[in-house]
Write a structure and sequence with these properties.
Elements: H1 3-13, H2 17-39, H3 42-59, H4 69-90, H5 102-108, H6 129-141, H7 144-155, H8 160-167, H9 171-201
Helix pairs in contact: 1-2, 2-3, 2-4, 2-7, 3-4, 4-8, 6-9, 7-9
Length: 203
């Protein structure tokens, strides 16, 4: 942790209300964004984000600074999201919640295999708002295991070491899941990227 984070942590552990206000202002959008990407449904993401900050308020005293404050916060966020996903599964909700309506999702579901060796980051060619929305929708269709790795690595731009601290997964598992998740996501997006390229280069 840098000096600023250490000072904030000390104030949080002293129970200073102003410090919690600083924490919420600094991280509320990132926490909500991560919840939304991991869960794919806005109301659930809002509820879980609130639970995350309540949990931080209750348990900040047990945090010993073995990682950065932000890494610990992402770990708390991930755990709450996974617990809610399991809860929803038990209640027979759909396994993959969408950012869009079911009808829109059905119309957008198309897959195609990529040629061997194509594994560049699938969001690198998404240049307009429509395709970015499509990216979010297709990320929501991934399994929870693949979805979280894509979110951490390619959307939040976290390094392998920090992802390992957040998830507790071995480095080899993280790399292999990221490899498979990128291939799957790129395969799902390939038809739309090709269509977009044809429209831009057409007569």
């Amino acid at each position: 942790m840098d000096q600023e984070e250490r000072q904030l942590l000390a104030a949080l552990q002293r129970g200073e209300e102003a410090a919690f206000d600083v924490l919420v202002r600094r991280f509320q959008h990132k926490v909500y964004g991560m919840c939304l990407r991991l869960m794919g449904e806005r109301q659930e993401a809002e509820d879980v984000a609130q639970e995350v900050f309540l949990s931080v308020f209750r348990h900040i005293g047990s945090f010993r600074g073995e990682s950065s404050l932000s890494t610990w916060l992402w770990r708390v966020t991930r755990n709450h999201c996974l617990n809610r996903i399991k809860h929803l599964k038990r209640r027979h909700h759909r396994q993959h919640l969408s950012l869009e309506s079911p009808g829109e999702r059905e119309n957008q579901t198309r897959t195609r295999d990529l040629p061997a060796g194509e594994e560049s980051r699938p969001d690198s060619r998404l240049e307009d708002k429509q395709l970015r929305q499509l990216l979010e929708a297709e990320i929501a269709r991934l399994t929870p295991e693949h979805r979280e790795i894509i979110v951490f690595a390619d959307l939040e731009h976290l390094g392998y070491e920090e992802i390992q601290q957040i998830t507790g997964l071995p480095l080899g598992t993280i790399k292999s899941r990221l490899h498979r998740a990128r291939l799957e996501l790129a395969s799902r997006l390939a038809p739309y990227l090709e269509d977009s390229g044809e429209r831009k280069n057409g007569p």
